[in-house]
Amino acid sequence: MTLAAAAGFLTAATETHGFLSPTGVEIAFLLVGLVTFGAALVTVTTKQLVHAALWLVATLGGLAVEYLLLTAEFIAWVQVLIYVGSVVVLLLFGLMLTRAPIGRSPDADSGNRWAALTVAVASAAALVWVVVDAFRTTWIDLDGPAAGSTEATGASLFQNWVLPFEALSVLLLAALVGAIVLSRKTKADAAGTGPAASTGPGVLGAGDTGRDTEGAR
Amino acid sequence: MNDALDVALRLVIVFVVFLTFPLIVGQTEHKVMAHMQGRLGPMYAGGFHGWAQLVADGVKFAQKEDIVPAGADRRIFQLAPAVALLPYLLVLLAIPIGPGEGAVGEVIDAGVFFVLAVMGVGVLGSLMAGWASANKFSLLGGLRTAAQLLAYELPMLLTAASVAMAAGTVSIPGILDAFEWWWLPWQIVGAIVFFVAGLAELQRPPFDMPVADSEIIFGAYTEYTGLRFALFLLAEYAGIVVLCGLTTVLFLGGWHGPWGADGLGWVWTLLKAAVLAFVVIWLRVTYPRLREDQLQKLSWTLLVPLSLAQIALTGIVKVVIQ
Prior knowledge:
The complex is a heterodimer. Chain A is mainly alpha-helical. Chain A has helices at residues 3-16, 24-45, 49-69, 73-98, 113-135, 150-159, 162-190, 195-216. Chain B has one domain (2-321). Chain B is mainly alpha-helical. Chain B has helices spanning 2-36, 53-63, 74-93, 111-132, 136-167, 172-178, 183-186, 188-202, 213-216, 226-251, 265-286, 292-321. Chain B is globular. Classes of the chains: A mainly alpha, B mainly alpha. Chains A and B meet through α3 and α4 of A and α4 and α5 of B.
C-alpha cells in the first residue's frame, strides 16, 4: 500500500470510526481475541502435555477465526491447513512416540520459565509495536471488494513481496535438504562409520529438529 | 428475513444430506459386499431386502451403555467423536452439486483450501481418541493414523493444486465453470492420486492398518461403545461421501455431462459420486490390507512423485495453450 493511500485511509478512518461505538464485527474480533489469548495462556501453563497440544489447536483455530474476521479468507484456511492440520498433528505424533502420560507430567515444568517469559513478553511487545506503528487506525472497508481474497493476497504476494517469498522458499528448501542429510548421517553413524566426523553435525542436529518441522511446512 | 430463511434452508438441506447419504453408502456397502462375496447381506430388517438394517443398528448403538474407561482422560475421550465427525459436515457445505449459486451450501472464495484444511482437522479426532483411551492398542492406532495423515496429506494437496492451476482459481464453483471435457485425460493421474490419498486419509481398506480390527482391534476406537462408536463409524461413511463428492467436483467435472447440463446437472454430480462410492466399496472387498511400511512407501515413493509430475504436466500444458 502506498503512503498516500494509507493517509487516505487514515483520514477516512478518523471521520467515520471511533473506539467508543464498536460494530458487531469489532466486538466479535475482540471476544475471539480474548478466547484465543486465554487458550494460549492455558497452552503454556497446563501441566498435561497432550492437553497443551490440544489447547494449541484452540489457539491456532482462534487465530484463523481472527483472520476470517479481517476478511483474509485465504490466510485463514492456510492457517488451519498448515498449523491445525499438520503442525499440531506432527506435535501430537512426536508426543505419542516419546511419552504422553494421561494426567499430570511433573517434569513438564522448566527451570527456564522466567527466561521464557521475558523472551515471550519482549517478542510480543516488538510485534505489537510494529503492527500498531504500521497500521495505526487503518480500517478495513467491509462493504467494498474483499481486501483479503485469494486474488488480492496472491497479487500482492507476487507483485510486491516476491523477493521475501523466494528467499523464504529457498530457506525452507535448505532446511528440508538439511533435515534429510542429517537423518541419513545419524543412520550411517549408528552403523559405526566415523565417530570423529559425527560430532559436528550431531550438535547441529539437536538444534535442527525444530527447523525440520518448518521444512515440512 | 428472506436472507435468513435462505441460509437456514441451505443449512437444513446440507444437514439432511449429511445424515442420509452416509447411511445410503453404508447400506450399499452391506449389499454390494455381500453380493461380491456370494451371499445376500441383511434381508430381514424393514422387510424389503433389509433396507432398515442401519436404522436397526443405530437403535442398537443408542441402547448400549456409554462406557468411559477408568484410566481414560474423560473429557477428551468424550469430545473425540465430535471432532472426528463435525469437519465432514462443514466440508459438505462447500461442495456444489449443480451450476449456479443455488446448488451449493456456501460459496467459499478459497474453497479448495477450505475443504482440505477442514478434512485434515477430522484426523485430530482419531488422535484424541487414541491417546485418551489409555490403551496401548489405541495409542498405536493413533500413532499410525498420524503417520498416515502426514504421508498422504501432501499428494492430496499437490494434486488439488494441479487442478487449481488448470482452472486458474481455488474456488470450487470456479473450477467447475472452467472445466472442459479434455481435462479428464489431462488430470487423470492427479485424479487417481487424489482419490487414493483420500482413501488413505479416511483409513478405508486397503489403507486401514491404523484401525485394522484383526490386528490392533480397531486401533483408536478400541475402547468406544454405543453412540460414540457409532459416531466414529458415521464419520467414516460421511468421509466417503465427502471424498467422492470432492473427486467428482475437482476432477470429473461435477455437473458437466454429455447432455442436460442445465436442468439435470445435479444428477450427473450424484451419479459420478455414486460410482466412486461403489469403487470405494469394491476396493474394500478386493484388495488385501497394506502393511504399515508399505503404506508409507506407497505415498512417498509413488504418489508424491506422481503428483509432482502431474503439476509439471499441468504447468506445461497451461503455458502451451495460452
